[in-house]
Design goal:
This protein has 226 residues and is an alpha+beta fold. 53% of the residues lie in helices and 15% in strands.
Length: 226
């Protein structure tokens, strides 16, 4: 029984009509599984989720068409390589999802339906488990604080007393000029103390920076690109 799961539905290197239909539906099912699991605990655009859902059947069809044709295989590989250079850099997990979808489509295109479905379920379950357990996440309640100050304000050490009352830790990540050099924009990574009022914290900062713009939010997710 287990051997049947890992065997191919290909007969003499060619697909029948029913084999093609089964492979396409299986590839699409794998894409839906991967996209559905990726939605959990991950922020993803609708475009990316549609890509994950439709990529396996597309790859499956390509593999069927180039089966045994070396020239066509080389041409398709060149076409796929162009997609990489016309795409914006993505996060590591997004690229992993793309490769997972392509692997499932490849297995389905080779006729290994059981392998494609089992592989998609297994890797998706591992991905879901890692996301639910917070594997590799070490934000520790970190937030990004951006403070705008006038050019005539000596901001070094200006806010240390406020930070000491409201924050566990703070690190200055960037200082840049804005508004034709008349303002400075400070970007800090901060960890607020438990139970403190963010409104009072921002109000005290406003009294020191001349009531200019201040923002406090989650850190930008820009450290995972490959």
């Amino acid at each position: 029984m287990l051997d049947n799961v890992f065997s191919s539905i290909l007969t003499n290197g060619s697909f029948t009509g029913s084999g093609f239909l089964i492979s396409t539906l299986a590839a699409f099912a794998c894409g839906l599984i991967i996209a559905g699991v990726y939605m959990i605990k991950n922020r993803a655009s609708r475009s990316f989720l549609l890509t994950l859902a439709l990529l396996p059947p597309i790859v499956e069809l390509v593999i069927i068409l180039v089966n045994g044709n070396i020239g066509a295989g080389v041409a398709v590989a060149g076409a796929f390589s162009l997609v990489r250079f016309r795409s914006a850099p993505g996060k590591g997990q997004e690229i992993t999802g793309i490769f997972l979808a392509m692997a499932a489509g490849l297995a389905a295109g080779m006729g290994y339906i059981g392998v494609a479905i089992l592989f998609s379920l297994l890797v998706s379950a591992i991905l879901l488990l890692l996301n639910l357990t917070g594997f590799g996440r070490d934000d520790r309640g970190m937030r990004t604080l951006k403070i705008t100050v006038p050019e005539n304000l000596d901001f070094e050490g200006k806010f240390d007393d406020i930070f000491g009352r409201y924050l566990k830790s703070h690190t200055c990540d960037e200082v840049r000029t804005t508004n034709m050099g008349s303002l400075y924009r400070l970007t800090l990574s901060v960890v607020p103390k438990d139970g403190v009022s963010m409104k009072e914290f921002l109000d005290e900062l406003r009294t020191q920076n001349g009531n200019l713009d201040i923002s406090l939010g989650r850190p930008a997710d820009n450290t995972e690109s490959l």
